[in-house]
Design goal:
Chain A: It is found in: Cell inner membrane. The complex is a heterotrimer. By secondary structure, chain A is α/β, with parallel strands linked by helices. Chain A is 30% helix and 24% strand. In chain A, a hairpin with a 2-residue loop joins strand 1 and strand 2. The relative contact order of chain A is 0.13. In chain C, the strands form 2 sheets. Chain C has an 8-stranded mixed sheet with strand order 6-7-8-3-9-10-12-11, with helices on both faces. A 4-stranded antiparallel sheet of chain C has the order 2-1-4-5, with helices on one face. The chains are: A alpha/beta, B mainly alpha, C alpha/beta.
């Protein structure tokens, strides 16, 4: 398979006073055409910042400070705004966490879905409408003609997220970025939306990058996954390997924090403490202060990337054993 | 607090300066603001008369300094009663709701039906000119804004989980209002008060100018401006310097208000 | 249960009136209302942890607030230690209320931003004279340490603490008045995975050590399974199933419980993906609920009889489910 997106040593910082606080450091990953890639981590780990940086939708004063984001051979990190505009929509679509704020409240849903086609060369209004209704059917919106004439507040949360997905899909992107797309939804609706994303991916041959804090969502949706902690990717692996044989102690700890039954049967072992403030990361490994495997070298320098046999890797001097039994459960 | 916003420090500094001027200025000045000296009328600014003299030979500098007492007093006496009445009504309306709310909000509707200045002028006209009647008029009309601001804030804070928690912990209404709600809603009203004070100073000066506020020979800034009005082309300093004083006091209050808003906001925010 | 339950809720009804314009009222349009709780009954034994689960708008939060007396009851009874709170006189209601405390969802809005942590916890101690005045400080330190915070946290303002730490402060404050029942409404939903696990274990430890009874309200079935011995499943203002968590989760007897369990994204990539079709559609509006069984519009097994109100079918093991086909559903195999 071909690499569709190649994020290389990406760094993102935010100016605070005279200095720059780095939000994301040295993040590299590649997305192949048609694959589904998950980025998991807790709030503040930089996962949303990373995905937004891909299409340069960074908010506030955050800036890409180093590295490149190659999509189809074009470096989006350096690209001009005009070049970005043609990539957004037709090349890369994005779905956000809160569909209510992602939609314009005073424009009908139909117009918002069709609008993207204007910028991608569809001049005829009837054709735009036809493609809009088709996109709405594709995302499973019932009675498209009626919903097209509705305003966002008239729809339910699940319908809004479907409409937002239709907007992202209208210009047939090859990559869909989804930032916590189901976090604001109820479980049964979440199941519907996840199913929809998976179906669309296989039907349209589109790649998906899904950012979430929920390991369950990743397990059900993604082929490969990256775990982020304090601005860095600490582990990356095919989905089964992450759950069956996590190597980085943070991944292990994260897996041990999700309830999987009763306390008597599967007691949770929470990670003590909290992630560091990005402005005051410890000199060595950021996870060292909370890490059960910590040794002296962890506090001296940040561990480099260790490739593992199964097509993944991790950034740790003292990883968990590679056997499935030695980890959680 | 170590990290006070710059505008708060500046605003506080300037206001402190004004208060010191108002208290000690008149004690240190040799002259008297009302003694006429026709020998020295319409003198331009000089060493002896830093702001010049007016048509009756009174030092404008002396008058402006004495006037600071009156204008600061106007700001204080206009704002405080309106603030106290308004926040009390707003708190009662917002917290207890129902009938209390309905009655007080109808009162507010009546009060806002008249334009502020027109209402104040009408009341002063009925009661008779003078500062005391102006204070009464401003209190009668000005509380409305405070009531609205406070009520709106209360409606939000009342729903906050910490207020629900206080109720569950068995605290009485008085305690919940005084300890848990008031400190969180008073900020908005206090910030508004600083801009209201600016308005009231302008109002005091305008009424003085119209002859409805402070009465001559009081060295109220608006009155001084009115005195100099006829001589504006010959002796612009008579109206100019008190005008400058008003602007400077207004800026001080605005800075204080902005600074207060900045200083109190982060605490409300999410760290 | 042979012993009298600590809390029993019997046939509880709660309506919220929808805003009606003055003109509509004068025109004689009927007042529209939302039924947030319809004939809800359940009991919680002393020291038990009861999980109330359901999706947004199902009425679980309203139910918690009704129990705590933050909302008034329209019909039905809430008995706390045998005494009906809804009929108690104001003074004894206040005393009863203090024995029930709440842990809130949003750790940011549950603490007064202008009050130091120490003062927030000391306030109820002083007001109710729970410890002698000279021991208040020591008690505050003890409470903070009990919830896993250093005693020095007393000097901090809420804005200086993280979400997890604030949630601990909220728990310490609730414990200050020595309650018997703790109502936790989505108390871990706003927290990150690792912090959530800390707070879950804390709540469970406190329950065991202090002999607390816990009413834990959550949309998260995994959390309920971890923490609660008994579960009540809510849908559209009604309780559709109630029983021991392990039995209910192993063999759900209501199609909604079944669908809910099937919808959880399991943190296990080997679990078959998407084998069971997700529940179609969305919950109907509570203003205009379906006749008969509220779930019938989305239920994969709905039949004509479901248009009549479902019976409360008693099942073995102290369970019940409000479904015409409860026994069949319970015995159907799960993929």
């Amino acid at each position: 398979m071909v690499d569709l997106l190649d994020v290389d040593h990406l760094g993102i910082g935010i100016a605070r006073g005279d200095s720059t606080v780095s939000l994301v450091e040295d993040v590299s990953f590649t997305i192949r055409a048609g694959e589904s890639y998950g980025i998991v981590g807790e709030s503040g780990c930089g996962k949303s910042t990373t995905i937004r940086a891909i299409i340069r939708l960074l908010t506030g004063k955050a800036r890409i400070t180093q590295g490149s984001v190659r999509f189809d051979g074009v470096d989006l990190a350096q690209a001009k705004e005009s070049a970005l505009q043609s990539v957004r929509g037709a090349g890369i679509g994005m779905v956000f966490q809160d569909p209510l704020t992602a939609l314009n409240p005073v424009i009908t849903v139909g117009q918002q879905i069709a609008e993207g086609l204007r910028y991608h060369g569809v001049r005829s209004a009837p054709e735009r409408r036809a493609r809009m209704l088709e996109a709405m059917r594709l995302v499973g919106l019932p009675d498209p003609a009626r919903i097209a004439a509705s305003y966002p507040h008239e729809l339910s949360g699940g319908q809004r997220q479907r409409a937002a997905i239709a907007i992202a899909l209208i210009a047939s992107p090859r990559l869909l970025l989804a930032d916590e797309p189901t976090t604001a939804l109820d479980v049964t609706i979440q199941a519907q939306i996840l199913r929809l994303l998976t179906d669309l991916r296989s039907r349209l041959g589109m790649a998906l990058v899904l950012v979430t804090h929920d390991l369950g969502v990743v397990a059900q949706t993604c082929d490969r996954v990256a775990v982020m902690y304090s601005g860095r990717i600490v582990e990356e692996a095919p989905i089964r390997r992450i759950f069956e044989a996590p190597r980085h102690p943070y991944t292990v700890a994260l897996l041990n924090s999700i309830p999987r039954g009763t306390r008597a049967g599967h007691p949770l072992h929470p990670i003590a403490g909290m992630p560091p403030d990005p402005a005051q990361r410890p000199p060595g490994c950021s996870f060292a202060p909370r890490c059960p495997n910590r040794q002296e070298d962890c506090e001296v320098s940040a561990p480099g990337w260790t490739q593992d046999a199964g097509g993944g890797g991790f950034a740790c001097f003292h990883p968990a054993l590679a056997t499935a039994e030695a980890t959680h459960g | 607090m170590k990290h006070w916003p710059r505008n708060l420090k500046l605003g506080l500094g300037l206001m402190l300066g004004w208060i010191l001027v108002a208290i000690f200025g008149p004690m240190l000045l040799p002259g008297d603001p009302t003694t006429m000296d026709l020998m020295h009328s319409l003198h331009p600014p000089s060493l002896a008369f830093p702001f010049g003299t007016d048509n009756l030979g009174r030092g404008v500098f002396t008058r402006v300094i004495y006037g600071s007492r009156i204008d600061l007093q106007i700001a204080l006496f206009c704002v405080v009663p309106a603030f106290v009445i308004g926040t009390t009504v707003g708190m009662a309306a917002g917290y207890f709701g129902k009938l209390t709310d309905a009655i007080s909000m109808r009162l507010v509707d009546i009060a806002v039906a008249f334009p502020f200045f027109v209402a104040v002028i009408a009341i002063v006209a009925v009661l008779g000119p003078g500062l005391k009647n102006m204070y009464i008029a401003v209190a009668a009309v000005g509380w409305v804004s405070y009531a609205r601001i406070t009520r709106a804030e209360i409606l939000v804070v009342k729903q906050a989980d910490y207020v629900q928690a206080a109720r569950l912990l068995g605290f009485g209404n008085t305690r919940i209002l005084a300890r848990h709600i008031l400190p969180n809603v008073i900020v908005q009203a206090a910030v508004y008060a600083t801009s209201d004070a600016v308005l009231d100073i302008f109002l005091g000066s305008s009424l003085g100018w119209l002859g409805l506020g402070a009465q001559p020979p009081l060295p109220e800034w608006g009155l001084i401006i009115a005195d100099g009005y006829s001589f504006v082309s010959q002796a612009p300093w008579i109206s100019g310097f008190p005008g400058l004083a008003i602007v400077l006091l207004a800026i001080s209050l605005s800075l204080l208000g902005d600074g207060l808003a900045d200083a109190l906001r982060p605490e409300l925010g999410r760290a | 249960m042979a012993e009298q339950p600590l809390l029993s809720v019997i046939g509880l009804d709660k309506y919220f009136l929808l805003r009606r314009s003055l003109v509509a009222g004068l025109m004689g349009q009927p007042q529209r209302r939302v039924q947030a709780a319809r004939d809800v009954s359940f009991a919680i034994g002393r020291g038990e942890s009861f999980g109330l689960v359901g999706e947004s708008g199902c009425g679980k939060t309203t139910l918690g607030r009704l129990v705590l007396g933050l909302l008034s009851v329209d019909d039905g009874a809430i008995r706390f230690e045998g005494q009906d709170i809804t009929k108690a006189d104001p003074a004894s209601r206040r005393a009863l209320r203090r024995q029930m405390q709440m842990v809130f969802q949003d750790p940011y809005s549950s603490l007064n931003p202008r009050m130091r942590i120490g003062r927030a916890i000391a306030e109820p101690l002083r007001l109710h004279g729970i410890v002698p005045a000279d021991q208040v400080e020591r008690e505050v330190a003890r409470l903070l340490e009990r919830v896993g915070l250093p005693a020095s946290a007393a000097n901090r303002y809420p804005s200086e603490l993280s979400g997890g730490q604030r949630q601990r402060v909220g728990i310490a404050r609730a414990l200050s008045v020595r309650p018997k029942l703790l109502v936790a409404d989505e108390a871990v939903s706003g927290l990150d995975v690792s912090v959530r696990a800390q707070v879950l274990n804390l709540l469970d430890d406190l329950r065991r050590d202090l002999d607390l009874t816990l009413l834990f309200i959550s949309h998260d079935l995994g959390v309920i399974e971890y923490l609660c011995e008994t579960v009540g499943v809510m849908y559209l203002g009604t309780m559709v199933e109630n029983g021991p968590t392990s039995a209910v989760f192993a063999q759900p007897a209501h199609p909604y419980t079944r669908a809910l369990l099937a919808s959880i994204p399991r943190a296990d990539p080997t679990a078959l993906r998407g084998d069971e079709t997700p529940l179609a559609g969305e919950p109907p509006s509570p203003v205009d609920p379906p006749s008969g069984c509220p779930f019938r519009t989305r239920c994969p097994d709905a039949q004509a009889i479901c248009e009549t109100p479902p019976p409360r079918v008693t099942l073995p093991g102290g369970r019940w489910a409000a479904c015409h086909f409860a026994v069949e559903t319970m015995n159907a195999p799960i993929q």
